[in-house]
Amino acid sequence: MSKSLPLEGETALVTGAARGIGKAIALKLAGNGADIAVVDLLVVEAAQVVEQIKELGRRGQAFAVDISNSEAVRQLVDDVTAHFGGLTILVNNAGITKDGLLIRMSDDDWDRVMSVNLKGTFNCIKAAARVMIKARRGRIINMASVVGVMGNAGQANYASSKAGVIGLTKSVAKELAARGITVNAIAPGYIDTDMTRGLSDQAKDSFLKGIPLGRPGTAEDVAAAVVFLASPGANYITGQVLHVDGGLLM
Q1: Which residue in the list 16, 158, 221, 231 is annotated as catalytic?
Q2: Which of 16, 203, 223, 237 is the Cys-Cys partner for 94 at CB 3.0 to 4.6 Å?
Q3: What fold, for 11-244?
Q4: Is 236 known to be catalytic?
Q5: Any residues with CB less than 8 A from the CB of 190 and at least 6 apart, and which?
């Protein structure tokens, strides 16, 4: 008799799932049995991720939605629940950066990062929570960052948005716990992605010197943490921030 997968029968909505960490999360969740709604404005790449999900034997569907638009997100959740028959896992991974020193940062660069990273997370939680509350079960996992805990020069907007995600996570965890819904955050450190590969060698060396494990993390490291928080093994964990950073913040 074959052993059932830990997330079999679950449906996950993953934002920013067309590439990088989001793609790794979507595929890792699918590999553990979940059906996946792939949400991303990168339409071609999202469709490719859906094909990989189907190759794993799970259902997948791509949705091109700007998560900073609250009405579009409400419609997204309606569409996902109609297509898959429910929604039990939400992973708020989508995020952007518009780095620059504070004194040179434009209002637009501040507002756009806040709109996607923080308001987008709020929009998705609010829409998905309505479905999960009715079902009296659900897992919400928000992507924060070590930068939201320790700050970083040149990233006042990004750090503030991620610190906001942490505060949002803890507040919503208290509101939804009685309905059987857990809400947690993951704070990745220096992760090897397309974005960080563009850093200078000097910047990379500076990051690595502060990491006790002596290497950057991988998208799969973050995805494994998401699967854990979505799994039955995390039934009694809520309102927490899991640092996936190789010891950077120790």
Answers
A1: 158
A2: 16
A3: Rossmann fold (3.40.50)
A4: no
A5: 196, 207, 208, 211, 216, 217, 245, 246, 248
